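Hey, can you fold this one?
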Amino acid sequence: MQSQQKIFYGWWIVVGAFFLNFAGIGIIMNSMGVFVKPVSESMGFTRGGFTLYFTIAALAMMVMAPVMGKLLERYDIRVVMTISTTIMAASFALFSQCRTLTQFYVLAVFLGVGSAGSHIIPVSMMITNWFIDRRGLAMGIVFAATGVGGMIFNPLANWIILHHGWQAAYLTFGLIIGVLSIPTAIFIVRAKPADKGLLPYGGEAALARQTTGEQEGVTASTAIRGGAFWLLAATILLIAVANMGVLHHIVPYLTDIGFSSTTATALMSLHMAMLIVGKVLAGSLADRLGLLKSYLVCMAGLIVAILLLYGAQFLWVAVVFSVLFGFSIAVRTVLPPLMTAKVLGQKHFAVIYGLLNIFTTLGTAVGVPLSGFIYDWTKSYSLAFALYIGLCLIAAVAGIVLMTRSRRS
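Sure. Predicted structure:
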């Protein structure tokens, strides 16, 4: 095997993974909020009823996550991801043809299935396999793509909706997802360095692991019988509920309290810009200061950011919220795979993280419509924000316990 190239191929994996997250998460997850009011009002849906389609997509992704983990380990990653990205792009584009909630719900199942094999799980697996040194930085870069996508696609979606309607926005974005994701899956991605006759990025430590054929960590069956797995799962679940419960209702909330849709999406773009910085910084801090300190900084920022929403009728408060929330939500995407690799190891990372991703998607499935239903019930988001602050406090304590008591931390 060759340990050195002019440009280490792992960095091309980072580029490919960046495109996958840019399209798959930057559009599907981080731009959903722009569609909530236009679609609900034009079709006569309640906010809770409409956002339930995202729950269905998340549940489908949750069911498929462990299956995708096994498929990605067993079969050619390019084949699995090409099929998955095609399903993801086509189903999102077909939202443009929906006229009933049932149609949204049916397509959401396919969206979730495709998404399971298109971004979070395979991207986390590839970065973990390709990098030992600089893993936090690489993970931060690829998940910063979600912020780049959100920063670009939120105002773009708003412009398309205002001038051409929400149907055109769904169709346009579905095409963009396909153009960026499918060629990447075919031509760039590789599961592990051995597929290219290379070693992971990490010097002699990587060489020792590669030549002995050993990978540290526990098997999936051992992991699910241990307390660390379930504590990590609970932490991931609580963060996802709080994070997604706020994220997809930022634009509706800001317009409810008096901002125009243009200003609200501009603030959302600011939030996404800070998300880019936050994810790279969180990964770098994890490399330099350790996971626990990086985690606590992000959780503190998340709690303070949600508190600021109570005063967001003032533009300067809304701006500070957008900056701080954008930085802090790296805790949902960048840190969990790093925590998984550290606490449970790499031996069966794809399967274990696929199982843990069930709780990420379950949290998404709960948080997005929960905020909508609370709004429908109370005509306000205040109760939802209070709930999410409480969940963040619990998650912060759980994370401290996990990373101070784990035998691998």
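The domain at 9-405 is CATH 1.20.1250.20 (Growth Hormone; Chain: A;). Let me know if you want another pass with a different chain boundary.
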